[in-house]
Amino acid sequence: MKPHPRDILLGAQARTGGIPVCDHYSGVEARMRKSLQLQAEMAQEYGACVFDVTLDCEDGAPVGGEAEHAALVTELALGAAPGARVAVRVHAVDHPAFAQDVQVIVGRAGARLAHVMLPKVETVQDVDIAARALDAAGAPQLPLHALIESPAAVHRAFDIAAHPRIQSLSFGLMDFVSAHDGAIPEAGMGVQGQFTHPLVVRAKLAISSACHAHGKVPSHCVVTEFKDRAAMAAAAHRAAADFGYTRMWSIHPDQIRPILEAMSPSAGEIGEAVRILLAAQAADWAPISVDGKLHDRASYRFHWQVLERAHRTGRTLPPEAAEWFGATP
Fold first, then answer.
1. What pLDDT digit, counting tens, does each position of 107-157 carry?
2. What is the rounded distance in angstroms from the CA atom of residue 273 to the CA atom of residue 305?
3. 92-110 as b/e, with b when 16 or more CB fall inside 10 Å?
4. What's the CA gap between 168 and 263, in Å, rounded?
């Protein structure tokens, strides 16, 4: 039996992989329930859980109703279908409801959560506070995702990404723009301006680079024009192809499929990866020439990561590649 590519290509497994490429947010009860139902339906369709559902306490909880909302989120997490990937966005560490969110939700449903999203992260110390709270709630292994929403937080992105508890950094576009006191125009929040305004572009690149430096997942911000499917698809493609983001937020069900499509490898990329890896395997992973181009362990790792991304996004793989992932189409 030939050795598995993962055993040969040391470090081949994508450090920034392993979690779905889409993170879908909802905070109103009816929408949270519908999101969990849609997740289950699409998991059947794709043969894998292709997006996370993050239940939102920060923007979802009505003022004065934070305790009741935390209890609702807990029950929804506990009642999610087997195999569901459910997360929660709690309040910021300096908010009066933070400790209550963690105690109630993580304390009761921590074992069912994929991660905890921490908003308004400014420093590594904020991450430390949250990590200690999760530990005290009985979830010492639960990953933290951090939302970078200010110029100062962008400045510290590399240090925050280096924290061992952090799995992913997300860019909070709207708060970042508003933190500039009008110096960035409103267009900087839009589907065009967020990819062209220099300060926004700089922030996006800093967060993506920080994540890749430390093997964490860079998660791209929202697109507020949620009814414009073409704009959503273009933004998701640009986030992945030009800015190095391997995950993206969805705030409407219609945004999920465009994100999956944009962050999935094409059929041509999958076919090329399979062809090169099979040739490499036949050569016992020594350097080879394919179509006049040199390939060695570095390019083998790249093409293996293409297949990992295809598998994670529910793409159909050829039989010889599906076998590497323990499945046949």
1. 999 999 999 999 999 999 999 999 999 999 999 999 999 999 999 999 999
2. 9
3. bbebebbbbbbebbbbbbb
4. 16
Instruction: Give the HSE-up count for residue 108: Cα atoms under 13 Å, Cβ half-sphere.
Output: 15
Q: Is this prediction's pTM over 0.85?
A: yes
Residue with tokens 């890896």: 277
What sign does the CA torsion over 280, 283, 287, 290 have?
negative
Give me the residue spans of the domains in the chain: 22-262, 266-325
Half-sphere exposure of 213 (CA within 13 A, CB side): 14
Query: Would you say domain 22-262 falls under CATH 2.60.40.2890?
Result: no
Q: Report the amino acid identity of residue 117.
A: M
One-letter-per-residue 3-state SS of the chain: CCCCHHHHCCCCCCCCCCCCCEEEEECCHHHHHHHHHHHHHHHHHHCCCCEEEEEECCCCCCCCCHHHHHHHHHHHHHCCCCCCCEEEECCCCCCCCHHHHHHHHHHHHHHHEEEEEECCCCCHHHHHHHHHHHHHCCCCCCCEEEEECCHHHHHCHHHHHHCCCEEEEEECHHHHHHCCCCCCCHHHHCCCHHHCCHHHHHHHHHHHHHHHHCCCEEEECCCCCCCCHHHHHHHHHHHHHCCCCCEEEECCHHHHHHHHHHCCCCHHHHHHHHHHHHHHHHCCCCCEEECCEEECHHHHHHHHHHHHHHHHCCCCCCHHHHHHHCCCC
Which residues, given as ranges, of the chain have pLDDT below 50? 12-14, 328-329
Bridge partners, 26 (sequence order): 55
Contact between 82 and 111 under an 8 Å Cβ cutoff? The reply is: no
